[in-house]
Specification:
Oligomer: single chain
Bound molecules: zinc ion
Number of strands: 6
Helix content: 40-55%
Largest sheet: 3 strands, mixed
Strand order of the largest sheet: 1-3-2
Number of helices: 5
Radius of gyration: 17 Å
Order of helices and strands: EEEHHEEEHHH
Distance between the termini: 11 Å
């Protein structure tokens, strides 16, 4: 599957840093409002090129990934047991766990400590499900993706960068299945 086949759009919003939003069928580059200025727009043009190259790489790798087959119940059981394990290791636990179909992320955690897991994560290998849970629970200690956050993550997952990339790769695996 080629990147050109994925619809993508660029839009501007009142944000500080450019970001990419994924839905299962669309790639969306969101840029800060002020990046319409010329010199900024060429900077963001380079950013988009870099991201597109990264996405292209993920797409290529995604063809080699196997989607894991699990029942909904098996998945819930796995998630709950991994939450108990991670909660023990991090000395922090979520209040509630919800399973929902989400279009833009694998999981999220709210300020009320409610953990939401994307039902699509049912197809992920065990180690990525575990990483995803530890990542979200770590946000209860550190909200933002700053150095402190990655320090905590690196204690358990020194190779977290590769794992973050794998989550992208699997996301594209799902896109290409549609
Ligand atoms: Zn995060």
């Amino acid at each position: 599957m080629d990147l050109e086949n994925i619809p993508h759009k660029v839009s501007y919003r009142k944000i500080r840093y450019p970001r990419i939003e994924f839905t299962t069928g669309e790639l969306h580059f969101v840029l800060p409002l002020n990046s319409r200025h010329e010199e900024l727009s060429s900077k963001h043009e380079r950013w988009i090129q870099k991201k597109r190259a990264f996405i292209q790489e993920c797409l290529k790798e995604s063809e080699k990934r196997e989607v894991v087959q699990r029942s909904g119940d098996e998945f819930k059981e796995l998630v709950l047991s991994l939450i108990i394990k991670a909660a023990d290791e991090l000395a922090i636990k979520p209040n509630n766990v919800y399973f929902k179909l989400m279009k833009t992320k694998w999981a999220s955690i709210s300020s009320k400590k409610n953990l939401t897991i994307n039902k699509l994560a049912r197809c992920l290998p065990d180690h990525l499900v575990e990483y995803m849970i530890v990542h979200e629970l770590t946000h209860l200690k550190q909200k933002r993706h700053n150095d402190h956050f990655w320090e905590i993550i690196a204690k358990k997952f020194p190779d977290y960068e590769a794992l973050e990339k794998e989550l992208f790769v699997y996301w594209f695996r799902l896109i290409s299945e549609r």
